[in-house]
Design brief:
Largest sheet: 8 strands, mixed
CATH class: Alpha Beta
Distance between the termini: 12 Å
CATH superfamily: Dihydrofolate Reductase, subunit A
Order of helices and strands: EEHHEHEEHEHEEEE
Shape: globular
Helix content: 10-25%
InterPro entries: DHFR-like_dom_sf, RibDG_C, Riboflavin_Biosynth_HTPR
Protein name: Dihydrofolate reductase family protein
Number of helices: 5
CATH topology: Dihydrofolate Reductase, subunit A
Length: about 190
């Protein structure tokens, strides 16, 4: 069965974006960047892959799910992950680039995707969608940046209180100050 992986940059106080949705304060350069770029190339938008002259290996992910705000982050790029099957979660009917799927039921859609053969499913964002999907997330890969935002978009949006346990399986500390924390859903939490 495929995993739903929430791979995301986060501040030390648990925010994935500033109050206005910006995420440009996260460290893009440093000793963490080359390793994560190689390890998670499938999670890099197509425009950046092209600029770097890199091809996504499609070994880690072959599908991405994202919320509407994440999908429309760059209006000039209506096809952000052309190398992946793209699913956009929205409560309303929306127009998207040809070949991109819109779902109003991301939980059911993720469950269907997890039952299919293939590589992992990349949960790209945002926090509200992650909160909706928290019980479907199998793995968290948090790129914890050495910044405190104070306010902004929480890692799991404003999901209702329901503790879900994840067990730590790895921590990597980089000279840049970025700490990559990896967790898997605790066995008793698995659906």
């Amino acid at each position: 069965m495929r995993e739903l992986v929430y791979y995301i940059a986060v501040s030390i106080d648990g925010h994935i974006a500033a109050p206005d949705g910006a995420f440009d304060r996260f460290l893009m350069e440093g000793d963490h960047a080359p390793q994560l770029t190689e390890e998670f190339a499938d999670a890099i938008p197509g425009v950046l892959l092209d600029a770097m002259g890199v091809r996504a290996p499609l070994t880690r992910f072959d599908t991405v799910i994202m919320g509407w705000d994440t999908y429309t982050l760059d209006p000039s790029n209506p096809n952000p992950y052309p190398h992946l099957r793209q699913i956009v979660a929205s409560s309303r009917e929306r127009e998207v680039h040809e070949g991109i799927e819109v779902t109003s039921d991301p939980v059911a859609r993720v469950r269907e995707s997890k039952a299919e053969d293939g590589a992992g499913i990349y949960l790209c964002g945002g926090g509200g969608l992650a909160g909706t999907l928290i019980e479907e997330i199998d793995r968290l890969v948090l790129k914890r940046n050495p910044l405190a935002f104070g306010d902004g978009t929480p890692l799991f949006g404003h999901a209702p209180y329901r503790p879900v346990r994840f067990d730590p399986v790895g921590v990597r500390v980089f000279g840049s100050g970025v700490v990559v924390e990896e967790y898997v859903r605790a066995p008793e939490e698995a659906a």
